[in-house]
Design goal:
two-stranded antiparallel ribbon; 51% helix
Length: 471
């Protein structure tokens, strides 16, 4: 009878762990394979001691770490029989997982870690690498999506390249302040959709502000100190941003900067009567303006003629026109025409057609009323100032269109007739046209606010549109 023979122990070989790099004991068969293994591999010798510095031991056998270590092996095994691109992507995913194991080990990383990783690896690689980990399915996930994180920092870098460090530093500090607000919400248990500050909102705001800063830089502004409300108005018009959201955003940015730099302009952006018919900016074209002008001049009532011409030629509001007094009229000795010179406003000479209509109003009124220097020019049959409704009805009867449409037409044509700066100053400072109305007028011209015009055209801005064709 042959004696019993002891079972031989198979020879052991060492192979490096793909995660921590430590030596693992494996069989000869496993050693021959080219594939990599990790501490979680089932092919290592049972009961063998894990290497010093093993990630699983370092993170107290955290579930996230164990899954991450396993995912490294699986990603490499899947890619081993595929093309070069698959192998490269698998290697990148493995690098992301190793970074997660080494830096985090358990739970969701902080935003700063994501931002740093996304500066090195594509977003889709990071998502594919981390999405199998248990923390990704948490109900209190801080960042449900990573797609908007990288573009935020990328936009800041682009602004630094396109403009200067002043604008780029402001935008970078603004981004950090948004992230601080987001962390403030995290500390109070607000995550995901419940968080009032979302990554998608930060991305949208950063893009809107960066576009504005790039635009004003190329307009010649080195800082925000020289970019006042009028600059914002021109930007909104040139970009065709009729919705007020962008204006609100930039105004809030100015307010935020002003806390750091006190000399920053104060911009209070609002849009009155939003959604009402007044937001439409309908005007007459050149031919329609000429026809309206001819109808007005042929009308029998001098009050209707004068009110209509004040709107069509001088962009006067009905309320301002009916407030006109005899003391506001100054006769020009050389031409015998009237000049309108209201107190604390710049005087402007008027055309012969309007001057004749005003003369007829004064003569008609003086036949039944005592002439006084401070009386109104437009008087009703009851001896009182003409009402707003009556005046609007007269304008409609004389011109065939509303007074508002005549006024908007005048604003557009004044801008067409003058230079960018001069036309805007005349409208806002002399004729008291509001900035939102000027924005819509400039947009209606179809021209960029930077389109140069001949300086001499400004002298004929009142009648230029009556002498030209649309072309």
């Amino acid at each position: 009878m042959m004696g019993s023979q002891e079972k031989k122990t198979p020879p052991m070989f060492s192979k490096p762990c793909m995660a921590c790099g430590g030596d693992l004991l494996v069989t000869k068969k496993e050693h021959r394979y080219k594939r990599g293994i990790t501490c979680c591999s089932e092919t290592i010798v049972p009961n063998s001691q894990l290497p010093n510095g093993c990630f699983i031991q370092a993170h107290d056998a955290s579930e996230d770490t164990q899954v991450a270590v396993t995912a490294i092996t699986e990603s490499m095994s899947i890619a081993s029989g595929r093309g070069k691109k698959h192998r490269e992507n698998a290697e990148l995913r493995g690098q992301v997982l190793r970074r997660y194991i080494d830096d985090i080990g358990a739970g969701e990383p902080e935003i700063d870690w994501y931002r740093h990783i996304l500066q090195t690896y594509p977003t889709n690689i990071v998502i594919k690498a981390l999405s199998p980990l248990p923390y990704w399915s948490s109900e209190t996930l801080k960042l449900p999506s990573l797609k908007e994180v990288a573009p935020i920092d990328t936009r800041t870098k682009r602004l630094r390249k396109e403009t200067n460090n002043y604008f780029a530093d402001l935008l970078a500090e603004f981004v950090e302040s948004r992230y601080e607000l987001m962390h403030f919400s995290f500390d109070r248990g607000l995550f995901g959709k419940a968080n009032p500050v979302k990554i998608s909102t930060i991305k949208r705001d950063v893009n809107g502000i960066a576009d504005y800063l790039e635009w004003i830089y190329f307009e010649g502004h080195e800082t925000l100190q020289s970019a006042s409300r009028s600059v914002l108005d021109e930007y909104l018009v040139e970009k065709g941003l009729s919705h007020p959201r962008r204006g609100y955003l930039i105004a809030r940015f100015y307010k935020w900067v002003k806390k750091k730099l006190p000399f920053t302009p104060t911009i209070n952006f609002n849009q009155r009567r939003r959604g009402s018919p007044h937001t439409k900016f309908e005007t007459l074209n050149i031919k329609e303006s000429q026809q309206a002008f001819q109808r007005i001049c042929a009308h029998s009532d001098p009050r209707a003629r004068a009110l209509s011409l004040l709107a069509l030629l001088y962009a006067q509001k009905v309320t301002d026109s009916i407030d006109l007094r005899l003391s506001d009229l100054k006769r020009n000795p050389s031409s015998s025409l009237w000049t309108i010179a209201r107190p604390e406003e710049e005087a402007f000479a008027i055309e012969p057609e309007l001057s004749a209509a005003l003369d007829a109003c004064i003569v008609m009124d003086s036949q039944s009323h005592t002439v006084e220097d401070d009386r109104y020019v437009f008087i009703s049959k009851f001896g009182e100032k003409l009402s707003t409704n009556s005046s609007r009805a007269m304008i409609k009867a004389a011109s065939g269109v509303t007074g508002s449409k005549l006024r908007r037409t005048a604003i557009v044509n004044m801008y067409r007739g003058g230079q960018k700066t001069l036309g805007t100053v005349v409208l806002r400072e002399i004729l008291n046209v509001s900035s939102p109305t000027i924005r819509r007028a400039i947009k209606a011209t179809g021209d960029s606010v930077n389109t140069p015009t001949v300086a001499e055209d400004a002298d004929e801005l009142r009648r230029a549109f009556l002498e030209e064709d649309d072309d």
